[in-house]
UniProtKB/TrEMBL annotation:
It catalyses: (R)-4'-phosphopantetheine + ATP + H(+) = 3'-dephospho-CoA + diphosphate. Substrate binds at S10, K42, M74, R88. This is Phosphopantetheine adenylyltransferase. It comes from Sporosarcina pasteurii. The record marks H18 as: Transition state stabilizer. Its cofactor is Mg(2+). GO terms for cellular component: cytoplasm. Its EC number is 2.7.7.3. One of its GO terms (biological process) is coenzyme A biosynthetic process. It is found in: Cytoplasm.
Length: 160
């Protein structure tokens, strides 16, 4: 039986921290679906389609990773694809407190889908999409923080 995990997020844009978590999840699970949770309340820099393309390029070397998007509850998406697990990355204690609340609610909605936390590598413990966008906006060097495709896409966005 194939074990499918979901790695949800906004990924606006995907960073090397996200990619680290996805890569490590792909070593543990037979299939990993990276799902862009489309939150209409958030003002995203990249469209869902642009984010999907960037993630597909960044994970092209991972044959068991697929990219999707969803507008609803993440747990409903996970159920619809037959996921056995949700994988979340943790950077700090503050992440854990937030993720514990989400995990508890997801367990109420579907107790059969487990949540697995992967601690980020130390080099990415400060990294977020928001900070990457801020640095890129002002022309800072983000080459160590994001895949090359994302670096190029950010430069184009901020030149407009």
């Amino acid at each position: 039986m194939s074990k499918l995990a979901v790695v949800p997020g906004s990924f606006d844009p995907i960073t090397n921290g996200h990619l680290d978590i996805i890569t490590r999840a792909a070593k543990v699970f037979d299939q990993v679906n990276v799902v862009i949770m489309n939150n209409s309340a958030k003002n995203s820099l990249f469209t869902v389609e642009e984010r999907m393309t960037l993630i597909e390029k960044a994970t092209a070397n991972l044959p068991n990773v697929q990219v999707a998007s969803s507008n609803g509850l993440m747990i409903n998406y996970a159920e619809s694809v037959g996921a056995v697990a949700v994988v979340r990355g943790l950077r700090a204690v503050t992440d854990f407190e937030y993720e514990m609340q989400i995990t508890s609610m997801n367990r109420v909605l579907d107790e059969d889908i487990e949540t697995f936390f992967i601690m980020t590598k130390n080099q990415y413990s400060f990294l977020s999409s928001s900070i990457v966008k801020e640095v890129a906006k002002y022309g800072g060097n983000i080459s160590e923080l994001v895949p090359k495709e994302v670096e190029s896409a950010l430069k184009k966005k901020f030149q407009q």
